Amino acid sequence: CEAQNEGYSAVCIDTVGDSAVEPLRSVLEIPVIATGRSAYLLALTLGRRFSILTYRPWLWEAHAQLAEYGLADKCASVRAIEAEPNVVDLMEGKEGDLFPRFVAAAEQCIEDGADTIVLHSTTLHQVAEHVTAALGIPVVNPGPYSYKLAETMLGLGLSHSHIAYPRSARPQLRMAHTMIDSVATDS
What CA–CA distance (Å, rounded) separates 15 from 62? Predict the structure, then answer.
């Protein structure tokens, strides 16, 4: 919420879940990048049908986003590997086990009709290069792409539409800070 006041030029939401994009767009003038939505749309720029690659616990979110964004008919499949996501250590020391499983799941995506793969987490960044090398199709790595999209938007002087995301008549920033601080102290 304070990024603009602190001198930042853009905000990239570092989750494919696009958490808080809409409320942030209602209080900020600077671009707020929806990492998940932009990754799906890039996949449709690179191909005709994409699949989503994720971990089993995150399947629900991928399906919910496809419905919310109206992209279910453009998605060939959502494939997941059976593993518990580790957002702290990522894949450290488990690459030999996890990379082949992601490649196998991506091969299933191609069989499902996908010509492009979207990684359904910014924490899967290590997988992108490996799957691309193994299969030779575009793999959208959402984290780095969101940064490049922010650079592009800034270079073109673009930001989100305030018709789509109107300014809040009464922003509740103090309440938002209180809620965040409350969660932080409970952790």
Answer: 12
Question: Residue 22 carries which DSSP code?
Answer: H
pLDDT at 89 over 70: no
- Tell me the C-alpha distance between 102 and 108, whole Å: 10
Chain-centroid distance, C-alpha 79: 16
Distance of CA 63 to the CA centre of its chain: 13
Q: pLDDT for 61-80, tens place per residue?
A: 999 999 999 999 999 999 99
* Amino acid occupying residue 160: H
Least confident of 10-19, 118-127, 162-171: 162-171
- How far apart, in Å, are the Cα atoms of 74 and each of 44, 110, 145? 8, 14, 20
Q: What is the pTM of this model?
A: 0.88
Distances (CA, A) of 29 to 1, 12, 13, 104: 11, 14, 15, 43
* Token pair 């960044």: residue: 125
CB 28: neighbour CB atoms within 10 A? 21
Question: What tokens were used for 62?
Answer: 């991928």
